[in-house]
């Protein structure tokens, strides 16, 4: 579950979201697959004694995902399923900040902006047809 504190020690600094079923193994960002923990406890969950270099570990996870699920990756970025656009369109209609919209969709704010840009391009193409 996504919390604003480490579920083990209660700290509120430098929080990570640990996936019980790794995303590289098909796990989701669903609340039931996530536990909020601090870097120390995240490392312990993965069997590491030092989690100070989280970026290296993240890169290793992405590399594993590219090997295990090459169909999900094109040109260095994860492939977005076409069905996602319908969900994004619905969430964009909500009168809430984009940060909250991204959270509802389980994506980063930058990813939301990428979707918005792509949706605008598609809408322009459809109008010119």
Short account of what is shown:
The protein is mainly alpha-helical and 129 residues long. The protein has helices at residues 39-46, 54-68, 83-92, 98-105, 109-128; strands spanning 16-19, 34-37, 73-74, 77-78.
How does this structure look, described?
It is a single chain. The protein is mainly α. The chain folds into two domains: 16-72, no CATH class; 80-128. Helices cover 47% and strands 9% of the residues. It is built from five helices and four strands. The protein has helices at 39-46, 54-68, 83-92, 98-105, 109-128, and strands at residues 16-19, 34-37, 73-74, 77-78. The strands form two sheets. It has a two-stranded antiparallel ribbon with strand order 1-2. Strand 3 (73-74) and strand 4 form a beta hairpin. Helix 3 (83-92) packs antiparallel against helix 4 (98-105). It is globular, with a radius of gyration of 17 Å. The model has no long low-confidence stretch (mean pLDDT 79).
